[in-house]
Structure formats: C-alpha cells, structure tokens
Amino acid sequence: MRSQLRHTALLAGAAVVGLAVIAFAQGQPAPAVQPHPHGVFGVVLDYMRRQPFILLFLVVAVGYALGELKVKGVGMGSTAATLLLALIVSFWAFDAYQIQYALPEFTSTVFFNLFIFAIGMKVGPQFLGGIHREGKHLILLSLLVPLLSAALVYASRYFTHLAPGLLAGILSGANTATPGFGAAQAALASGSAALTGDAARQAPGNLTTSYAFLYCISMVLFTVMMSVMPKMFGRDAVADGKKMEKELAGEDSAPLPGTADSFIRGYMPLDLRVFRVENPALEGRTVADLDHAHPRVAIERVYHDGRVYNPPPDLVLSRGDEVAMLGPVSLLLAGGPHIGPEVDDSKLRNVKFDTVEFIVHDKQVVGKTLGELALRMGHGIYLNALFRAGDQLPVSREQVVNKGDVLRITGSSKRVADLREVLGPPVKPSLSTDIITLGLGLAAGALLGAITIPLHGIKFSLGSAVGLLIVSIGLSILRTHNPALGGPFPESARQLLEDVGLNVFIAILGLNSGAGVAHAIEGGLLGPTLIIGSIAAFIPPIIGWMVGQYIFKMNSAVLMGAIAGARCNSAGMRAAQEASKSIVPAIGYPVTFAISNLLLTLICYLFALMG
Question: Among residues 560, 536, 535, 534, which one has the least CA distance to residue 548?
Fold first, then answer.
C-alpha cells in the first residue's frame, strides 16, 4: 500500500513540476513569430496541421500505448495519457512554431455522443438497482461537490484580485462544466454583467482562456486521481465492483436478455458422449427404438455404413455404428453400457451448439407449463433461464409461460432450428449492429438534451450527454424485456464505440487547446488561475469521497462514478471503469452529472453577472 501511494505521489509530483515549468515560462518573453515552420519538427508539425486526420489518430494510438505503461502497477490510463499527449503536441506546435491546430468541434461532439450512448447501453439494467440502493447519497454528493467548489472559488476574491471573467472561467474549467461556460458567455454577451469599459472588453477573453486552460489541466489530473483514489483510502475498487455486480444481479442469476453476457452459456449439466453399438439386442433396431429406450437422452448424430447422419427416426442400426448422445452425464453413464463402449476419437463429436432466446407469442405455448412444453419439444435442448418483464423466474415443471416471456435455450443447431416452427424466430448472438436504432437513439437523446427551459434570462437544458444517457439507459432496459427490440447490438461493437468515442473526443480537446494555454501564460493569468482552479477542482471531490466512504458507507466502485459525475468529468468516469475493471461506476454517474451540471450552469451565470 505504501509503495502504491509513493508511486502515485511521484506521478502527481511530475505533473506539478510540469505545471511549474509552464508557470515559470509566463515571466519569459513571448516566442518570436515564425513566418514559416523551420527544422524537421516544424515541418512535421505543420504537415500534421494540414492532415488533421493523421494527426488525430496518431495521437489516439500513441496515447493508448502510453496509457498501457505502468510503473510498479501505477499508470495514467489511456484517457489521461491521450489528453496529456495531445496537450503537449498542441502547446509545442503553437509555442515553438506558431502552428495552431483547429480540429472541427462537430467531430468532437459526434465521438463524445457515441461514447455516452455506448455507456448507457451497457449500464441500463444495473442503473435502476443502483439508484434504488444509493439514490439519496447520489443526490447529496451531486450537491456537495459543486457547491463546495463554487464556495472556494468565491472565497478566493478575499485573498487575491481576479481579473474580470475569471471567476466563472475558473469554476467552469476546474469542474469541466461546458454548460456552465456557455451560460457565463451568455451572461457577458447580454450586457447585464456589472462591468464597464476595459473590464467589459477583457472579461470574455479572460473567461475563455481560464476555462480552456483549467479544463485541460483538470481533466488530466482528475483522471489520474480517479484511478488511484480507492487505493489512497484503502479500498479495493476491483473487488467492490465485482461485489456490486453480484448484488445487483443475484448470485445465481443469469445475465438479463439484451445484455452483453446474455448468450454466454456458462455451466450446463449436459454432455455429449459417443458410443459404439456392440449390444446384439440393438442389431436391426431403429433410432426411434433407441430414443424410446432413453427418453431423456437425445441422439444427435449417427455414423452408419461409412456416412454421418443427422439420424431420421427410421434409420436401422447395425453393430459397429457410432451414436452421439446428448443428455445429463448421469444418464449417459448409466445408459451407455447398454449400447456399447465409449469412443474417444470419433467423427461425431463436432456437434455445434447454439444459445438463443425465444420470445413467447404463439397461442400454442402461452398458458402451458414448462413441464408440458418439455414433453412436447424439450428433447435434446436445455432451458438456461426464463425471464418475464426483465426479471428472472425460477425454472420448474409447474411454471406457467405467459405471452412475452423470454426463454433462453441451448441445443444443437438442428434442434434449435426445429423450435422455430412453434416458438418463432430466435434472437441469436450477432456480429452486426442495428444502425437504425443507433441513429434514432442518438438523435432522440440529443433532442432531449437540447430542450431548453428559460428562467429569468438563463436557459436550462439537460445537455446532450444527459439526454443520450437517459435514452440509451431506457433502451437497454427495454431490451431486457424484449431482446429483439432495437435489433442486434453486440458487445464488441458497443465497446468499440465507448473506447474510440471518448479518446477521439479527448484528443481533439487537447489538440485544440495549445493556443489557449499559451495565451494564459502570455496574459499572466496562469498563476492565480492555476492555484485557485486546482483548489476548486480537487479539494471538493476528495471531501466528497470521504463523505461517501465514511459517512454514507458507499461501494467504492459506485462512489467513483458518483464523484466523476459530480465533477462533470466523463474521462474520470472512464478511468474509474478501467481502475475497477467494471461497468459499475457508470451507475453512480448520470444522476450526479445531471444535477451538478444544472447547479454549475446557474452559479457560473451568476458569477459572470458579478464580473
């Protein structure tokens, strides 16, 4: 534990030293403007300006690689490494060669929205359970962290003179609250702020510069802090994440329909064994006779007269034939000797099995018990689980099947295909993604987030992030009721959207911020902005963590997401998922993110009016 804290302190210390070097540079003369890039690096950096696509994905790739590096178990993670690398490249290009990168903000928005949507599609089924358990605590944390941060920024006025516009810029940048920054811009543009003359002209620039500078610094350091916070307070986030997953799902529960793990079979009390026909009593008997003699064992394939058969009932058996049988191990061990010896090396062992889900609609099935269905169509298949309205039901012979129930079944490809005649088309694992649902979901989420409510000149909205989270969480919950809803959404595709979406967004943010950092240095804003912003950015989440851990007794994985949401920091939430190796942090994120964003939007607007 001490070793981990020591390496964490070294990592944070390196970041502080880097910031100190930048702070020292504010007393140095401004770099000379170069009419043309010079030297090898200048030519390369200028080429990257003209080829932003290459620049963007080089930064993403190298950032991922750097994020994998660890010093005795401590690393930055891909998100923080990507942002830090993008900032360094951007600042270097502008400071040394006057090269300013300007990647389209629309591209950044697209990838960020894909990331948020992917998170909601994963966390939906656990979200309601997490809210039920921790809802009150999440609301209190979402008030505590932003209000404490605002109080610290406001209190700084009594210790130092802040230039016009810095109050709102520091608060929004330190909390990575883009809606708050937008509200402050609107307040200054309205002319209602208590500013006149030069102060009124300087305020918008000070607001933008302090916000951009602190946004980047806060994003990097907070992401690193979230990765190590549980260890600093003696908690095991990985173990807590697994514990919460078990509590929400239940120890013996199967994955819900429509979720990432829904088609993972896990343990099945069945086996496939191959026996050679040596019993003289079976000579001249048919497969139907053998089926009748072993009613709970399915004959999947037969090797007869040099050919492999998916056996018809009237196929006549001969001595030396091989029979592949599927069933409970105890029945196979008991019935096998009546057929003949078991065969180890056989052409019949490559029977393919499918795990699929059927949604009950047929009138011939509705109202029947599982026992009745087993007698009619259960030969050679295994019922993994039964779900109704998103809840798993106990499997018993007396359990009645209702319309809309979901049956998860495993069996050979042929037997599963035969079930289509009664149960209809199955929902199968797929490598394709339903783009229609993805597109409509993204549009609906953005539309929900864009709805504004005017209040005394302030326009409140959920924002696209919260809107997309609500829509995607709702869609993922509906898919647990009906896995066919919205078409296939494979976990591999969802994970790709999550990983690439956030890191491309982060890379664009860093690459576009080099000029803002340089201007903060040249304008002499760096010192007070850095000191006050660091206090406002990191003291409140640490206090919030202590309250959540010691007073609320929260699960540390959920607490990580709650703190990231209260700090309006999506990259921090991603870092929490990486550190806990779990999706659980996303349970605590949406509620605190939404409330904190609304609070900070209001407070930043008021700070801008105050000047």
Answer: 560
